[in-house]
Design brief:
The complex is a heterotrimer. Chain A is an alpha/beta fold. In chain A, 52% of the residues lie in helices and 11% in strands. In chain A, the strands form 3 sheets. In chain A, strands 1-10-7-4-2-3 form a 6-stranded parallel beta sheet, sandwiched between helices. Chain A has a 4-stranded mixed beta sheet with strand order 8-5-6-9. The two termini of chain C are 29 Å apart. Chain C has 2 domains: 5-123, Glutathione S-transferase Yfyf (Class Pi), Chain A, domain 2 (Up-down Bundle); 136-242, Rossmann fold, CATH 3.40.50. In chain C, strand 7 (209-212), helix 12 (215-227) and strand 8 form a beta-alpha-beta unit. The chains are: A alpha/beta, B alpha/beta, C alpha/beta.
């Protein structure tokens, strides 16, 4: 049975494990540094990049604020073009639809194009339970699947693995599920890519059913778009008889012309290329070309909950480019798994609690998994105000707990707010602090100190309070003048 | 209530949620002025050729009178023995290929996908070329083959006419509207198949054709 | 030239823990011909409450801020993040409180609130403030200075004009130091990992002094540097700009 994210602990626990893994930290630092440099170079080529970001945000907002209309329009165009449209309220319903469709073909296996939505709904596990093998065909997804691992990045799910680890996984696992890795396989990326080509070729050529997601679904024309690099997407979208595409309801774009904006924003933000090697677009069924049995499953699975929050709904603009992960200093150090879902990094920290609700300890901890440094907003191609959303969700988490027994933190915050609400109260508190400062006779800093400051002083000296506050100095100065 | 009605109802309810959000208006200062977008035909074609070559594709420019010979010479140069050609490809090209001793298989003779494994190359025309990104778009009409034809063989030779090349992505999208409204699938190709999935190192050649050879026909 | 009347918002953190910074602002602005006032009723912008999720607790502080500073033409703040809290977050807090009067008051005061380097460069129109600081230094642009209020290269322009200074570029300068307010406690492990990288980059410059526009970030990086006995001091930008040959810091 494939691994799932179910039952992940709060962010801090996963983060601590990740920080202790020096190989992981090296892999992540190298990979994120590489991709940041590539993105910077190709974004710098585009003179109107900031305008494109605004246009991207506007197009997505247009869809979101009229989502019912656009969904109905997309459905009508798809049906006209010979596709069958299915609707799924949640993961279970979506999985049920896909399993039934595959069973109806008589196939016992499917080839899959990398799709975040299908990982989100845990489709592979549902197919497995129904006796259907799901073969991931994206190289990184293949590495994750063969390694019985969890994805840790949106674009490059195996970003936490280096070449030596990939080689080992291929040598050990490929033979168990098909053509084994070539003998004498080295850890050079071209040889590893070749091994994947050979391993998957037989699966592509015999597959009767493919499952994909979609990067975009154009309401005006009923066109679905898959953006990829390796050609595995083209294989899946072209060779089998049946194609089932699982599409989140937020993936819509209003018009065909909007693609002109998004096909500039996505590749440059995502892989740091002027354009990704392959983009496939299809509108329902085409006579004598590609799958003749075409299905689209439109999935909600919490998206309407996100939509219901007027501040939080901008997270649905996300086009899954992963630029925010690559610049996030927290992500760079802990990787994706600590975020406990297929959506890691800043976007995961805002999408997770919104899609899944804020009941779990993990979801409550995610909005705090950020220093609010703002690097994510600057690179987001659709201007999702990630730092502001994180603060918004923190407020939600705190407000959820109001009314019950207050936590130590809540009591501290209330006491702090009380003290700071009037200058005379602040002055009293400051007198206590400067009292300590006098006792310390001008020492600049302290070493380790007891709880609650111990979390700070574990590795950092604590600044000692000064002997005078600024306002004491000012009062003395003004007094001297008067 | 069925799932469709339930989801649409949830959407409508969500859109009536009270409150408002004031969007940020700031952004980082542009870090560079960007590259100029070419305007003259000559600049556009030069940029197109440069950008296609940047993906480690082979780019050749040729006059319209010598297309057939250029196609045959290019495939011979790659050591191709067997080529598949789509319906509607220029007959002169097919004859030129035969003349240099390359075995030509017609698209219509390929029944099983696996048969495409036995050919070395495919030759097609194109619909649109994009200069700023070095992209070539096929709409799979006559001369371009069904989608599988340009996917399984390991070498893809694409012949792009100069008048098909536009400067920018939005211009290409506009040109392609008609094909999409007619229900045609599109394949956008920017260099050979590639991956960056191992340590974000770019490697050319995974599942699609590992060699992309582009003939840009002028005049 | 008539003196510019300036209200100093020292910020609660500087007032209590780093009084030398607001003192330096007073010295510097008076040297540049301003009349500086310190409204004693001031307390805190509420940033720590807002950013930890305690919006309700922050609202009274927003009210207090507009009451204290509403009547001034210019408010100067020696902190990028507190400036950001006022300019970028107070309006949202007022809206959340459902108080149109407060919203209007916030809207009136926020354009008059300037971070120190913005005030010097944009309002006073100076980059050479007559400072003298003969040391090898490096500058860390704090996240909220850089990406929330977007001070750009103003601090660097001010530093470059300081006589005697040896200003060295900080590698990966624009990366966060890992402080992040309560993040430093709630996610202490990650915070320390980030701070350690920042401290390493600081040591690589060979600077004697690390300068920034936020004492909170400096306390974090400085705390790590001190624990490592790195021999690098931290100083707020204001203190460097206040230093002169006659009155060195």
């Amino acid at each position: 049975m494939s691994r799932t994210f179910v039952g992940m602990p709060k962010f801090q626990v996963g983060a601590r494990h990740a920080l202790a893994d020096t190989q992981l930290r090296r892999n992540l630092a190298h990979a994120t540094r590489t991709i940041r440099a590539k993105r910077g170079a190709v974004v710098g080529e585009v003179a109107d990049w900031e305008e494109l970001r605004v246009k991207g945000a506007e197009a997505k907002d247009r869809v979101l604020s009229n989502l019912d209309t656009y969904l109905v329009e997309l459905e009508a165009r798809l049906v006209e073009a010979g596709a069958t449209v299915h609707w799924a309220r949640d993961a279970a319903e979506a999985n049920g639809i896909v399993v039934d469709l595959v069973k109806a073909t008589g196939a016992d296996e499917v080839v899959k194009v990398k799709s975040m939505a299908t990982v989100e709904i845990e489709l592979n596990q549902a197919l497995e339970a129904a006796g259907i093998a799901a073969w991931e065909t994206d190289l990184a997804e293949l590495i994750v699947q063969l390694g019985d691992d969890l994805p840790s990045h949106i674009l490059v799910p195996a970003i936490h693995r280096n070449r030596a680890e990939v080689r080992e996984i291929f040598l050990r696992e490929m033979g168990k599920v098909g053509r084994p890795a070539p003998e004498g396989l080295t850890d050079e990326p071209p040889r590893l890519a070749e091994a994947a080509r050979l391993h998957l070729r037989e699966k592509f050529l015999r597959a009767k059913v493919a499952v994909s997601g979609a990067n975009f679904a154009i309401a005006e024309t009923g066109t679905l778009v898959v953006v990829e690099s390796e050609g595995n997407g083209r294989m899946c979208l072209t060779l089998p008889d049946t194609l089932i595409s699982v599409v989140g309801i937020e993936k819509l774009l209003p018009t065909w012309d909007d693609l002109g904006v998004f096909l500039q924003l996505l590749p440059r933000s995502s892989t740091g290329e002027r354009m990704n090697p392959y983009t496939s677009m299809w509108t329902g069924r085409t006579e004598e070309d590609g799958p003749q049995d075409v299905h689209v499953v439109l999935v909600d699975n919490g998206r309407t909950n996100v939509l219901a929050d007027v501040v939080g709904r901008q997270a649905l603009r996300c086009i899954r480019c992963s630029a925010c992960l690559n610049v996030c200093p927290v992500y760079e150090r802990v990787g994706g798994k600590a975020y406990g879902s297929v959506y890691p990094g800043p976007i995961g920290a805002v999408l997770g609690p919104q899609l899944r609700g804020r009941q779990g300890k993990l979801e409550q901890s995610l909005p705090y998994a950020s220093t609010l440094c703002g690097a994510c907003f600057d690179v987001c191609p659709v201007r999702i105000e990630l730092p502001d959303l994180l603060v918004h969700l923190r407020t939600r988490v705190v407000d959820d707990h109001r009314g019950g027994l207050p936590s130590a933190e809540a009591l501290t915050m209330r006491a702090g707010a009380f003290t700071l609400s009037r200058a005379d109260r602040l002055e009293k508190a400051q007198n206590a602090a400067t009292g300590v400062g006098h006792l310390l006779r001008g020492r600049a800093s302290l070493g380790r100190v007891p709880w609650p400051l111990s979390a700070w002083s574990e590795a950092r000296d604590v600044p000692a309070p000064p002997r005078h506050t600024f306002r004491q100095w000012w009062a003395k100065r003004e007094g001297g003048r008067g | 209530m069925n799932a469709r009605e339930a989801i649409l109802e949830r959407v409508r309810t969500a859109l009536q949620a009270p409150g408002s959000h004031a969007a940020r208006t700031d952004g980082p200062q542009p870090t560079s002025a960007g590259l100029p977008v070419p305007t003259s035909r000559e600049e556009i074609l030069d940029l197109f050729a440069d950008r296609v070559a940047d993906y480690r594709s082979v780019v050749e420019r040729t006059g319209s009178g010598s297309q057939a010979a250029a196609v045959a010479r290019a495939l011979s140069g790659h050591g191709v023995h067997r080529v598949v050609v789509p319906r509607g490809l220029d007959d002169d090209w097919v004859q030129a290929l035969t003349r240099v001793g390359i075995e030509v298989t017609a698209e219509g003779d390929i029944s099983e996908h696996a048969l495409l494994e036995s050919v070395d190359a495919v030759v097609t025309t194109a619909t649109v070329g994009i200069a700023t990104t070095g992209t070539i778009v096929l709409d799979h009409a006559g001369g371009q083959g069904a989608r599988r034809l340009t996917l399984v063989p390991d070498l893809h030779l694409i012949v792009v006419r100069a008048d098909q090349v536009v400067a920018t992505v939005p211009e290409a999208v506009t040109r392609l509207r008609e094909a999409v409204l007619a229900g045609r699938p599109l394949t956008w190709i920017s260099g050979p198949s590639a991956t960056s999935d191992i340590e974000l190192d770019r490697v050319e050649g995974v599942h699609g054709p590992r060699t992309l050879h582009v003939l840009l026909v002028e005049g | 030239m008539s003196a510019v009347r300036v209200a100093l918002f020292a910020t609660c953190f500087n007032d209590t823990m780093w009084p030398s910074t607001p003192k330096a602002v007073v010295t510097l602005l008076e040297r540049l011909g301003c009349t500086v006032e310190f409204p004693r009723a001031q307390t805190c912008c509420g940033q720590m409450f807002t950013n930890t999720g305690y919006a309700a607790e922050a609202v009274p502080l927003v009210r207090s801020f507009v009451d204290v500073f509403g009547s001034y033409d210019a408010v100067v703040v020696p902190s990028g993040s507190c400036t950001g809290s006022v300019r970028e977050q107070h309006a949202g807090l007022a809206r959340r409180a459902g108080d149109p009067g407060l919203e209007a008051a916030v809207e009136a005061v926020t354009p008059k609130v300037h971070e120190l380097s913005e005030f010097l460069v944009d309002v006073l129109g100076v980059t050479d403030v007559g400072a003298y600081f003969p040391h090898r230094v490096t500058y860390h642009p704090t996240c909220h200075s850089l990406r929330m209020i977007r001070v750009g290269d103003r601090p660097l322009r001010l530093l470059r004009a300081v006589r005697g200074i040896d200003l060295v570029d900080l590698p990966a300068a624009e990366e966060c130091c890992g402080f992040g307010g309560t993040f430093a406690m709630k996610n202490a492990d990650v915070s320390i990992a980030m701070g350690s990288d920042k401290a390493r980059h600081v040591r690589e410059t060979g600077a004697e002094v690390l300068i920034a526009g936020d004492n909170s970030c400096l306390a974090h990086i400085g705390g790590l540097l001190e624990r490592q006995r790195a021999g690098v001091r931290t100083m707020h930008l204001a203190e460097v700009l206040a230093a002169t040959e006659e009155d060195p810091s």
